[in-house]
Amino acid sequence: MTGILETRLGPLKLKNPVLVASGTFGYGVEYEDIMDISRIGGICVKGISLTPRPGNPPPRVCETPAGMLNAIGLANIGYDAFISGPLQRLRELCATVIVNTYGTSAEEFAELARRFDKVEGIAALEVNISCPNVNAGGIHFGMRPEPAREVTRAVREATRLPIIVKLSPEAIDLAGVAQAVVEAGADALAVMNTIRGMSIDVDTRRPRLGSVMGGLSGPAIRPLAVRLVYEVHKAVSAPIIGIGGVTCLQDALEFFLAGASAVQVGTANYSNPRTSLDIIDDFETYCIEHHLFPSDLTGKVQI
Amino acid sequence: MKWLRTTITQIERPAPGFALLRFAGQPEIQGEPGQFVMVRGAWGNDPILARAFSLVEVGVHGAILVRVVGRGTRRLADMRPGDSIDVLGPAGHGFDFSGKGDVSVLVAGGVGVAPILMLAESMAASGQRPIVLYGARGSGELVLCERLASAGEVAVATEDGSRGHRGYVTDLLLGVLEKQPSAHLYACGPEGMLEAVAKMAVRRSVPCQIALESPMACGKGTCKGCAVLARSGQYLYICSDGPVLSADDIYGEEQ
Ligand SMILES: Cc1cc2nc3c(=O)[nH]c(=O)nc-3n(C[C@H](O)[C@H](O)[C@H](O)COP(=O)(O)OP(=O)(O)OC[C@H]3O[C@@H](n4cnc5c(N)ncnc54)[C@H](O)[C@@H]3O)c2cc1C
Ligand SMILES: Cc1cc2nc3c(=O)[nH]c(=O)nc-3n(C[C@H](O)[C@H](O)[C@H](O)COP(=O)(O)O)c2cc1C
Fold first, then answer.
1. Prediction pTM value
2. If both were cysteines, with which of A138, A185, A231, B184 could A134 make a disulfide (CB 3.0 to 4.6 Å apart)?
């Protein structure tokens, strides 16, 4: 640990720019038996809502070429249980906690932000206006600039915590959404959440997911995510966290060159839960060998 | 739970389409019958998710029994000694067989024999001699029968009648339950078989534990992908609440 990887995303200071993506690492504490989770740049916990959510009917996951579909439906333990349970342990373990929040209205997002503002041990909020697996809220706020702006503004007014807004690849004009949320006070942007997909079992002629459609993630979506990071980086100056199919240092570097200042590892945690730590180690070696800081790479793709 | 990058030490191929993979513990693989491991080889993105397999042996070597059904299981079955694999486990809750003295009846369908074999051998090691009922489509899909026979009293059923009783393993179970009304049941196999076994048990108020399967991603209770709707109306998760659950919790009658 040389400190060479230290990263600033606006007001948010991180040990390194390699985070784990919401929904793919639980509440973080589940992994303390197999790795030192305090080394991760930031743990974006499973999306938290004001009250617990049971989730969608099964099957909820299926594998697809170089990726997977999920329709979890934001199953989570809710604000109270998170605060009194996993968060305590995360604090003891000195983990960097980023709380992914989910609401069905701008007011619910604001209420969550108000509550988390008073809680110790939280580095930032990641506002999820891009979940494709819920009937209300989620992606519906992320499709167009105005609802995205409204949610971000409500959250901004409710908290002093750094705010990351997590964007959807399904927005018609993602650069426009990005500009709107930055104007409304977002400190950083997370690009991207899953994109809706569908898979059918041809033997049974039924969809492979209980909710028919689900969010596609994994290496299959990486080129799409890299393109969106590139476009958003050209449109706004706020720092961008690149997400989508990161499995190794090479993948992370691709996002940096496209315009990211950090990355999140999602689906790859299911191949190997220690993926983020491997990337951190490789990134450090790379920076030392190339005499550079990660931020020197941001947006440096040669066109 | 541990995450290990280890090597395959030995492979047995008990029948076409099956492989018993042994891998080095570093120093030991731990686990109870019914618990499982998430396994993956160094094969890039295809497939990308680790695959769940019941533990068959623990100790200085761990072992899993793989039945080839798709790409991941094909890749595992094609591995060779010395190849690297990643193993996460032991995961989930196994069978509770502490109630000694009862008659234990173990029911296996297809590759469901994997945890049932480990359970039978663990029972035998603690001085019990369980009854083991083992069903498959045909005799070519009955594997590890000799090991089963040294651990318990085995009866087999095949759908094509190529060995043992012609029909379903549940036919055998009906006969056993008539003679042994106070049995404890332990079952693993395809969903249809588990449902039939569970319903027979629930109807007779016989205690019954079933090991369930579902597509899953994390194996650690974090992705919430492997939900199963319990009788209570709540979702249970196969990887963290199970894979062994009580028949009553899943297939119990509405109250
Ligand atoms: C707790 C648990 C224990 C298991 N123990 C064993 C074992 O001891 N031996 C063994 O051979 N198999 C076991 N399985 C099943 C094994 O995980 C699947 O067969 C495997 O994941 C299929 O991978 P694949 O890439 O070969 O098939 P895929 O190409 O992914 O799928 C092929 C077929 O298998 C089905 N399938 C996919 N994943 C699963 C799954 N996790 N469970 C059930 N069906 C699935 C698919 O719907 C499809 O019909 C277990 C599963 C669980 C959840
Ligand atoms: C099983 C699963 C659950 C997820 N849950 C959430 C969630 O609760 N909130 C959220 O913002 N994103 C969620 N995501 C999206 C991921 O955080 C990430 O944006 C996406 O998977 C793309 O990254 P990847 O390709 O590295 O997986 C989930 C993804 C998966 C696979």
1. 0.96
2. A138
Q: Please indicate whether, in this complex, the C-beta atoms of B223 and A66 are within 8 angstroms of each other.
A: no
Both structure tokens of B197: 């076994």
The first and second tokens of residue A80, run together, are 């109270």
- Do A99 and A74 meet the contact criterion of CB atoms below 8 Å apart? no
The CATH number of domain B104-251 is 1.10.150.120: no
Residues of the domain holding A188: 7-297
Query: Which of B1 and A134 is assigned the larger pLDDT?
Result: B1
Sign of the alpha-carbon dihedral angle for A94, A95, A96, A100: negative
CB-based contact A136:A104 (threshold 8 Å): yes
Residues B103-130 have a mean pLDDT of 96
Residue nearest to atom 10 of ligand 2 (CA): A22
Domain boundaries, chain B: 2-91, 104-251
pLDDT score at B254? 62
Does A139 reside within a domain? yes
CATH number of residue A190's parent domain: 3.20.20.70
On whether residue A302 sits in a domain, the answer given is: no
Contacts of B215 in chain A (CB under 8 A): 59, 61-63
A40-59 pLDDT, tens digit each = 999 999 999 999 999 999 99
Is residue A94 part of the annotated active site? The answer reads: no
Size of interface A-B (CB pairs under 8 A): 103
Average pLDDT in the B103-126 region?
97
- Supply the CATH classification number for the domain B2-91: 2.40.30.10
Q: Is the per-residue pLDDT at B100 higher than 70?
A: no
pLDDT at B18: 98
Q: Spell out the residues 6+ positions from residue B3 whose beta carbon is closer than 8 angstroms to its own.
A: A34, A35, A272, A273, A274, B86, B87, B88
A222-235 vs A249-258: helix crossing angle, rounded to 10: 30
For A130-144, B128-142, B202-216, which range has the lowest pLDDT when averaged over its residues?
A130-144
> How many domains does chain A contain in total?
1
Q: Are A162 and A124 in contact (CB under 8 A)?
A: yes
**B192 at interface of A, judged by CB pairs closer than 8 A:** no
If phi > 0 it is left, if psi is from -120 to 50 it is alpha, else beta; for residue B73 that is: alpha
By DSSP bridging, strand B18-29 and strand B59-67 are antiparallel
Supply the pLDDT for residue B101.
Answer: 63
- Using CA atoms, how far apart are residues B209 and B186, in angstroms rounded to an integer? 5
* Any domain includes A79: yes
pLDDT of residue A85: 97
Q: For residue range A239-295, list pLDDT tens digits in order.
A: 999 999 999 999 999 999 999 999 999 999 999 999 999 999 999 999 999 999 999
Amino acid letter for position A190: A
